[in-house]
Amino acid sequence: MSDQPIGNHALLSDCHSAALVDRSGSVEWWPAPQFDDPSIFARILDPEGGHFSITGRDIQSVERAYVDGSLVLRTEVVTGSGRYRLTEALVMAEGARNHDLGKDSPHALVRHVEILDGEVTLDIEFAPRFEYGLSLPVLHSHSQGMVARGGTTSLLVSSNIELEDHHSQASATVTLESGADFAVTAEAFSSWGDIPEPWDPDRASARLDDTVEAWRTWGAHHQNYEGPYADLVSHSGRVLQGLTYTPTGAIVAAPTTSLPETIGGDRNWDYRYCWIRDAGYTLRALWVAACPDEAFMYLDYLTTSAGAMHEEKDIQIMFGIRGERDLSERTIPWLRGWRDSSPVRVGNGAWNQTQLDAYGELLSATHRLREQFGELDEYEKTFLASLADRAAAIWREADHGIWEIRDEPKHYLYSKLMCWVAVDRAIDMADQLEAESKVPAWEQAREEIREAILDEGWSDEAGAFTQAFGSDDLDASSLVIPLVGFLPFDDERVISTIHAIAEGLTDQRGLVYRYLAHDGLEGEEGTFLLCTFWLVQGLAGIGETNAARELFELAISFRNDVDLLSEEVDSESGEMIGNFPQAFSHVGLVNAAWAISRAIEGKDQHSKAVGDR
């Protein structure tokens, strides 16, 4: 089975797709040419899922890091007889700079090896398995290199090392001395298109350097946060950009599918899609760690995707990276799953759930960027006003909640809270929406929702706002109450909720669970890093800055050697689990660091407008 820790992997991205490469130098995951395409390499999910490895013999030590200011990975390996460096990336288009990062990316995985000392023997294995491992490729030599075909996507492999074809894979073993170098490039292209130009070592090396410069110019024009943990905030901004599908501005929740929330269990989901739920928090993080342009592109993608709904229908909660609506879920039975955690799923069955929070997420996000939007057209005004109308009309209904619980609908507090946010933000934007006549109805709904949350969402027994009306179960989403301005941080009920969650919804380390109530699924999930960062924001907001910093540093201590975070941490082992790397975890890191910065400066972190740094 695929056994190595999820945290062993590093991310490569060209802002169209992403690959994961492990510490030994093996590419273990790559769907190409786009995030949601079938995988070509998927050994992270099954030993026979396909891989692309460049591995030295007799490895003694491995050190790796991203080249400063980029997502170009550099790994230095010491063997028993020498030392070598592997530099690799999903490269950008030549000359891509600033906002053009990711535009016209060639879908090429470039890997360059330099022998630094002594003599090194390396094994190269190229074993693509198209269609999630279903299709064994046909390999044949071509004047431009070796071509692997196995479905709608093919690969051109270029190298100055001769690879030998062994039926459905190619390999080579080379022994090289100090000063020698070689490159192996795999470029994805349409099986019905022209075969691309080959990559020689000079071109490969030059494009790696150019890709470093592409990332650096993007950062220079986008990143200016100077508060605590600035290096991690800037890196998280690059990770979020790496999870962005440049043609539309969509940000995938993670670039992987079915890395489990419970080891050996069936809490395995496909995260290569974009959730409306993530909008408000992601926009704040993009503003802090990137720039308004990326935030605006992301919101434009969401409003365009969601804007085709009819007023009488519930808004869809998630979309494909090109705005697709049908994300029907299926299983891939021939893949065993990471550590036998099956099934492996493609698609996401939550796409047609009812989640009332989506209205507030979208209106809150629009409100944050209202100045950037400028003059709204008639369609945009009608659409945004209809979101508030719909929230005001259906807030009393039950739903599946922010966590997409696959059980009977309930009256989740967070869903009611975000309906309150929907009408609250619409009221503030009424003049921009030319919807002044709707304000009295929205104000009435806002007051009714507020009263319901205060009366039915509070539990004297728990001493906290809880998961659902009439429940005593704690839920980390209650930490959002002061973050959206429903109640101030100095409200006694907010302070009590923060302390109750810190004491009653954490593991032995202090990391926060989403909830502990039964959710209709077998097994127990790990602690949720986003929720831990929410608690950091809560502690900072109530003036417990030292506790906030301690918890923040605990959370980031679980990052891997290249500063990537998964969705969860296993409560027993402390190992990162869940899809990887997780956008929401890096969003949480950015927002929590910003909250600590605000607390140190003596400033309130609550702001409806995103421009207040």
Major sheet details: 15 strands, antiparallel
SSE-based structural type: alpha+beta
Q: Would you report the number of β strands?
A: 26
The helix tally amounts to 15
Question: Roughly how many Å apart are the termini?
Answer: 47 Å
Q: Residue-averaged pLDDT, rounded?
A: 93
Low-confidence stretches: 608-613
Beta-sheet strand percentage? 15-25%
Instruction: Please tell me how large the radius of gyration is.
Output: 24 Å
* Approximate shape: globular
Helix content: 25-40%
Write the layout of secondary structure elements.
Layout: E1 10-13, E2 18-21, E3 26-31, E4 39-41, E5 51-56, E6 59-66, E7 73-79, E8 82-90, E9 108-127, H1 130-133, E10 138-142, E11 145-149, E12 153-159, E13 164-166, E14 169-177, E15 181-190, H2 201-222, H3 230-242, E16 244-245, E17 250-251, E18 274-275, H4 279-289, H5 292-306, E19 318-319, E20 330-331, E21 345-346, H6 357-368, H7 370-373, H8 378-394, H9 413-428, H10 430-433, H11 439-456, E22 458-459, E23 464-465, H12 492-504, E24 527-528, H13 529-541, H14 545-556, E25 568-569, E26 576-577, H15 583-600
Antiparallel strand pairs: 1-2, 2-3, 3-4, 3-5, 5-9, 6-7, 7-8, 8-9, 9-14, 9-15, 10-11, 11-12, 12-15, 13-14, 16-17, 18-19, 20-21, 22-23, 24-25, 25-26
